[in-house]
Design goal:
GO terms for molecular function: monooxygenase activity. Belongs to the flavin-dependent halogenase family. Bacterial tryptophan halogenase subfamily. This is Putative halogenase. Keywords: Monooxygenase, Oxidoreductase. The chain is of the alpha+beta class. It contains 15 helices and 22 strands. A hairpin with a 4-residue loop joins β14 and β15. α1 runs parallel beside α4. The protein starts with a strand and ends with a strand. 51% of the residues are buried.
C-alpha cells in the first residue's frame, strides 16, 4: 500500500497533536501515525501557564478547562534553604493559572482534538523508517497492529517520536548528550495526602534535599498525589547499594524532607514505583530538508521546572507555522527552517541555562552533585550562554555586542531580582520572561515572525 500526504507527523503526543491540529485547521493534508492506542500512561504532569496561549491558538482551551484537571495557580519551593510561593497572577505572566494533568487523559484530549479538526490520525501505527533522497526526507514505511503495512510519500515530515527519536537519533545519529542532568527519577502515587500548607491553589511542591537531589509533589484530579525523587545516577546507585532497593531509597528520601513527610503522614502509596533516567540532550540540527524534529525528538532537559510539555507544544506550533508558510507560498523553505532552528534552539538554550542555574543555588549539597548539575565546557560549546542569560534577565534580543563574561558571574546576575519582582528563587525570573512567542516583527527570527490570524503561519519582516 502506497499513498501520499502533504505532511506526515510521527507521534501523537503534545508536539505531534499540536502540529496536526494547526495544519489541519488550514486545510492542509495531514497524516499522523501514533505507535500506541490512546489513552496511554506518560509522566510530565505539571504544566506551565505558557501553554494556555497555545491551547487558545489550537482552539482546545475550553476542552482542557472543562475536563476537570487540577487548576494550578502557582508553585511552592523549599529550595536552597529558602521557602517561597510563586503565584501565576503576578504581572506580565501569560496566564493566571495552568493545570496539573493526568497525562494519559490530557494527551488523549489533544489527539482527539487533532482528529476532530481534520487530521488523519492513525493509532497503533508505527513508523519504521524514513527514506532520504539526496539528503531530503521523502517517504516513510509504517506498520499497523492489525498486520497491515505500507509506504507514504510526503512533502514535509514532523518527527515527534519523543525520546526514541526515530529520524534524528536513530537514523541520522544527530543527538548529542549533555554532561549535565544525568539524573534518575523514581516516582509513585499516593492517596490521602494532606494539602501543601501556605501554597497557591493546586501548586506543585518542589523540595531540595539537604545533601543531593530533590522531590516533587503534584496534586491530581483523580485524588492522588504524584511524588517523585530526582538525584544524580552515582548517588542513586550508591544509595540503592546501601539501602538494598529502590523503594528503600525513595522512602528514605521522603523522610528527609520534613514538609513532604508531614503531607504523607496519613497517606498510603497506591502504585508501584516507576524509574527513568533523565539524560539531557540536544540535536545537531532541529530540522533539515523535508523534516522537523519536535518536542523530545529534538531535545530534552530535566523535570525540574516542568518544561517538557511546554517545549513540545511550543515546537509543535513553530513547526506547523513553518510548514504552513512554505506550503502557502509565503516563505521559502530554507528561510522557514532557519526560523524554526533559531527560535526553538533559543528556547531550549535559555531553559538549559535556567535549570542549571537553579541547581547551582541548591545550598548544602555535596560537591559531586554541584558539579554534576553544572554546564561543562563541552555542554557550553555552540551555546550562546552570555546572550541567553541577558535575554532571561532583560528580555532584550539585540545583544550582538555583548562581551563574554565568566560563567559564575552570570549566575550571580541571574539571581538579581527583576524590577517589580520579589527577591526570591531566581530573582523572580520565570519562563514568561524568556519565552515570548515570536509573533511580532520585534521578536522576529531569521527575518520571519509568527502570524497567528487567521491561521498559524510565518511572515517576513515588512
Amino acid at each position: 500500500m502506497r499513498e501520499r500526504t502533504q505532511v506526515l507527523i510521527a507521534g501523537g503526543g503534545p508536539a505531534g497533536a499540536t502540529a496536526a491540529t494547526l495544519l489541519a485547521q488550514q486545510g492542509i493534508d495531514v497524516v499522523l501515525l501514533e505507535r500506541e492506542r490512546f489513552p496511554r500512561y506518560h509522566i510530565g504532569e505539571s504544566l506551565l501557564p505558557s501553554l494556555l496561549p497555545v491551547l487558545d491558538i489550537m482552539g482546545a482551551r475550553e476542552t482542557v478547562e472543562q475536563h476537570g484537571f487540577v487548576r494550578k495557580t502557582g508553585a511552592f519551593y523549599g529550595w536552597g534553604g529558602q521557602e517561597w510561593a510563586l503565584r501565576f497572577d503576578d504581572p506580565a505572566r501569560p496566564a493566571g493559572h495552568s493545570f496539573q494533568v493526568v497525562r494519559s487523559q490530557f494527551d488523549h484530549l489533544l489527539l482527539q482534538h487533532a482528529r476532530h479538526q481534520g487530521a488523519d490520525v492513525r493509532e497503533e501505527s508505527q513508523l519504521r523508517r524514513i527514506a532520504l533522497s539526496d539528503g531530503r526526507a521523502t517517504t516513510a514505511s509504517w506498520s499497523a497492529g492489525d498486520g497491515r503495512d505500507g509506504e507514504i510519500d510526503f512533502t514535509h515530515l514532523i518527527d515527534a517520536t519523543g525520546r526514541a527519536g526515530m529520524l534524528g537519533a536513530r537514523q541520522l545519529r544527530a543527538r548529542r548528550v549533555h554532561d549535565v542532568f544525568r539524573n534518575v527519577a523514581a516516582w509513585g502515587y499516593w492517596r490521602g495526602a494532606a494539602a501543601l500548607p501556605d501554597a497557591p491553589e493546586g501548586a506543585i511542591g518542589v523540595f531540595s534535599l539537604p545533601d543531593h537531589g530533590w522531590l516533587w509533589a503534584i496534586p491530581l484530579h483523580d485524588g492522588t498525589l504524584s511524588v517523585g525523587l530526582v538525584t544524580d545516577k552515582r548517588s542513586f546507585n550508591q544509595a540503592k547499594d546501601n539501602h538494598g532497593s529502590i523503594d528503600a531509597v525513595y522512602h528514605e528520601a521522603l523522610a528527609r524532607c520534613p514538609l513532604l513527610a508531614r503531607m504523607l503522614a496519613g497517606a498510603r502509596q497506591v502504585s508501584a514505583l516507576k524509574v527513568e533516567s533523565d539524560y539531557s540532550y540536544t540535536s545537531d540540527a532541529f530540522c533539515g530538508p523535508g523534516y522537523y524534529l519536535a518536542g523530545d525528538a529534538a531535545c530534552f532537559l530535566d523535570p525540574l521546572l516542568s518544561t517538557g510539555v511546554h517545549l513540545a507544544m511550543y515546537s509543535g506550533l513553530l513547526s506547523a507555522a513553518s510548514i504552513a508558510g512554505n506550503l502557502h507560498g509565503e516563505v521559502d523553505e530554507a528561510d522557514a527552517r532557519r526560523f524554526y532552528q533559531t527560535t526553538y534552539q533559543n528556547a531550549y538554550e535559555r531553559l538549559l541555562v535556567l535549570v542549571s542555574a537553579f541547581y547551582r543555588i541548591h545550598d548544602g549539597r555535596d560537591a559531586y552533585f554541584r558539579q554534576a548539575q553544572a554546564l561543562s565546557h563541552r555542554d557550553q560549546q555552540g551555546l550562546r550562554l552570555h546572550e541567553s542569560f541577558l535575554n532571561i534577565i532583560t528580555g532584550e534580543e539585540d545583544l550582538h555586542d555583548a562581551q563574554q563574561d565568566r560563567l559564575n558571574s552570570l549566575y550571580e546576575k541571574l539571581r538579581t531580582p527583576l524590577t517589580g519582582h520579589r527577591a526570591q528563587g531566581l530573582g523572580g525570573h520565570g519562563t514568561s520572561q524568556m519565552l515570548p512567542l515570536p509573533a511580532t516583527p520585534d521578536h522576529a527570527a531569521a527575518g520571519l515572525y509568527l502570524c497567528l490570524t487567521p491561521y498559524a503561519t510565518l511572515r517576513p519582516i515588512p
